[in-house]
Design brief:
The protein has a nine-stranded mixed sheet, sandwiched between helices. The chain has a two-stranded antiparallel ribbon with strand order 1-2. Strand 8 (299-305) and strand 9 form a beta hairpin. The protein folds into two domains: 6-85, DNA polymerase, domain 1 (Orthogonal Bundle), CATH 1.10.150; 99-336, 3-Layer(aba) Sandwich (Rossmann fold). The protein is built from 14 helices and eleven strands. The longest helix has 29 residues, at 2-30. It has helices at residues 2-30, 38-46, 52-56, 60-67, 71-84, 93-101, 111-116, 137-149, 172-181, 186-191, 201-217, 230-235, 242-262, 290-296; strands spanning 105-106, 121-122, 125-131, 160-165, 193-197, 220-226, 266-272, 299-305, 310-317, 324-331, 334-336. Helix 4 (60-67) packs across helix 5, helix 8 (137-149) packs across helix 9 and helix 13 runs parallel beside helix 14. The chain is globular. It binds guanosine-5'-triphosphate and magnesium ion (MG). Magnesium ion (MG) binds at residues 137-138, 169, 226.
Amino acid sequence: MPKRNKNIEKVEEIINDSAAPEDEEGADDLSLLPGVGPATAEKLRENGFTDLMAIAVTSPSNLSEMCSIGEGTAAKIISSARKLADVGNFLTGVEVMERRKSVEKLTTSSTAFDELLGGGVETQAITEVYGEFGSGKTQIAHQLAVNCTLKKGKGGFNSHVVIIDTENTFRPERIAQMAEGQGVKPTVVMKSIHVGRAYNSHHQMLLVDKAGELAREFPVKLLIVDSLTAHFRAEYMGRGALAGRQQKLNKHIHELQKFADKFNCAVLVTNQVMSRPDVFFGDPTKPIGGHILGHASTFRIYLRKSKGDRRIARLVDSPCLPEAEAVLTIVTDGVRD
Ligand code: GTP
Ligand code: MG
């Protein structure tokens, strides 16, 4: 009995520990705005404007209406936020091309799947795999984690992986099987995989910051969030909570993209398809998160079950590749053609 209580305390301690910094961080961010006192900052935060970028990209009339402040004040706040937040400078085509040159591609262990993606999972991008329960999203995540640790000659990145596990589905045993499938020692692979269990959406977002700390210590070239949306879905129920959920998700995705750019890292997120159209309106095979997620992820793959261990991956959205499909299998060794 006392042991169980200790465990619960431990979990609460972790959650509380992670709760504190966000508040402070939020205060840091908004307190940088000249002329914004604590009361206005609080109003902004209450209405979902928790970071400078969210303020920078809104309009004065919207901010004024949502936070009940004068439009002139709103315009001033937005203008300061734009200066402080890195809204993004224009790059010439040559500069974009230079940046693209540093993009690296990670093998999925299926030639057909790699081809579908134009050579593998890219760095500096978010790749989203969505599909129903049991479609193999977590299996693909495990395979990519193993592959990231492989030498470059074997299609890997020869570097570390961070996994943000929200559903407690990370299995070292499965990593071991897949490592053996690649002819490498499981213990060697395991040393380069860092797993953080996220207890709620708030904690999940905080773990991205923690991943940044790790990335300064080791070369991290793959960040996995499996599942991206499960906590958000559970915590923000019903239509009324939709706006808040999207705002939070939007912020989270923005942080992930920043991570991908900063560390020239591949980001893989998994997402379930909606099985309750009465709660989440729209097409029941649409992924959770709606259009915000759709525009934010660079590659979207719809995964569905086929006969036996076969899976069909469909590339749904990509900046420069055609919509197409690939057939892959999930076997003991991992993902294969
Ligand atoms: P949710 O997270 O529930 O939405 O599902 P998911 O898409 O993440 O599914 P997951 O990746 O967990 O896939 C589960 C399926 O992978 C199982 O139904 C099996 O078909 C397959 N699978 C999992 N482990 C093994 C294994 O060790 N060997 C083989 N051959 N197949 C496996
Ligand atoms: Mg899963």
